């Protein structure tokens, strides 16, 4: 029986007509949030956020308070075409005035286990104390298989309870990725999914309305402990939802 999956908080689902409207609405929402100093902002990779990053780069925002992080990274150098850092540099960071020491990339060029430990150490140093860091905003995409960040179905990272950042071998990609864990992501004050396109419709319906099985649909594992969960989606991605938002 497909019980609707009960998120720890009820996600807010905002449906836009297309990726352009989705990106503009998400940019406006993000701009409204950037009031705290410092603002700890986790970026996502993939293609969906590119339009959003470009729109953000054109807004007159107080970027000096912003601290940038990445939810996941490919195990490649920062100048590699697959680098999530490289994509954000091109679409956003190179277009705004932000201090270099406010940009905290995962070092994809390092040996993956060492890179994961190094990033976790960076986070602990930046946030201080023993508490798990709580980001002001985490952006996430979602794959056609329901993965998010580099938390892919059936991969070891899904079961990690005692780490903030891990290296994660993804069989289907025949590649290792670096990723924040559910333990870290779910401490965020706000988590914002960006989901666009008909190819995501089935996975989105399963994630939002299907049985709870985060090993199969990792996006279901994103359940902010205290924070807000928003899905910015377009009509194509939302086309299979039974409960119209
Ligand atoms: C990555 C992302 C990944 C991405 C999804 C969706 O490193 O690629 O972190 O989780 O958000 O795969 O990608 P698209 O936006 O390209 O569909």
Please write the string of helix (H) and strand (E) elements.
Answer: EHEHEEHHEEEHEHE
Radius of gyration: 17 Å
Q: Please state the average pLDDT score.
A: 95
Number of structurally distinct domains: 1
Question: At the third CATH level, what is the topology name?
Answer: Rossmann fold
Bound ligands, each once: 6-phosphogluconic acid
For the termini, the CA-CA separation is 22 Å
Spans of 5+ residues with little confidence (pLDDT < 50)? Answer: 1-6
Continuous helix count:
6
Output the strand order for the largest sheet: 1-9-8-5-2-3
Estimate what percentage of residues fall within beta strands. 15-25%
The major beta sheet can be summarized as: 6 strands, parallel
Question: What would you say this structure looks like, in words?
Answer:
This protein is α/β, with parallel strands linked by helices and about 240 residues long. It has helices spanning about 20-35, 50-55, 85-90, 110-125, 180-185, 200-210; strands at about 10-15, 40-45, 65-70, 70-75, 135-140, 165-170, 175-180, 190-195, 230-235. It has a 6-stranded parallel β-sheet with strand order 1-9-8-5-2-3, covered by helices on one side. It has a 3-stranded antiparallel β-sheet with strand order 4-7-6. The model is unreliable at about 1-5 (pLDDT under 50). The structure holds 6-phosphogluconic acid. The site of 6-phosphogluconic acid has 14 residues, from loops.
Quick synopsis:
This protein has a single domain, classed as Rossmann fold, CATH 3.40.50. The chain is built from 6 helices and 9 strands, in the order βαβαββααβββαβαβ. The protein has helices spanning 19-33, 49-57, 84-91, 112-127, 182-185, 201-209; strands at residues 12-16, 39-43, 66-70, 72-74, 137-141, 165-170, 175-180, 190-195, 228-234.
């Amino acid at each position: 029986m497909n019980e609707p999956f009960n998120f720890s908080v009820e996600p807010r689902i905002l449906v836009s007509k297309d990726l352009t409207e989705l990106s503009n609405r998400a940019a406006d929402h993000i701009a409204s949030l950037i009031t705290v100093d410092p603002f700890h902002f986790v970026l996502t990779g993939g293609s969906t956020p590119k339009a959003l990053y470009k729109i953000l780069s054109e807004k007159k925002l107080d970027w000096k308070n912003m601290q940038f992080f990445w939810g996941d990274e490919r195990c490649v150098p920062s100048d590699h075409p697959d680098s999530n850092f490289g994509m954000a540099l091109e679409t956003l960071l190179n277009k705004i005035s932000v201090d270099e020491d406010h940009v905290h990339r995962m070092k994809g060029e390092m040996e993956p286990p060492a890179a994961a430990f190094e990033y976790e150490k960076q986070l602990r140093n930046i946030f201080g104390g023993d508490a798990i860091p709580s980001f002001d905003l985490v952006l996430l995409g979602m794959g056609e298989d329901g993965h998010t960040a580099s938390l892919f179905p059936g991969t070891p990272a899904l079961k990690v309870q005692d780490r903030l950042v891990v290296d994660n071998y993804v069989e289907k990609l025949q590649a290792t990725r670096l990723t924040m864990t559910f333990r870290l992501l779910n401490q965020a004050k706000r988590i914002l999914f960006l989901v666009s396109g008909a190819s995501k419709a089935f996975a989105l319906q399963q994630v939002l309305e299907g049985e709870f099985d985060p090993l199969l649909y990792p996006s279901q594992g994103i359940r902010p402990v205290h924070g807000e969960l928003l899905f910015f989606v377009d009509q194509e991605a939302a086309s299979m939802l039974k409960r119209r938002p």
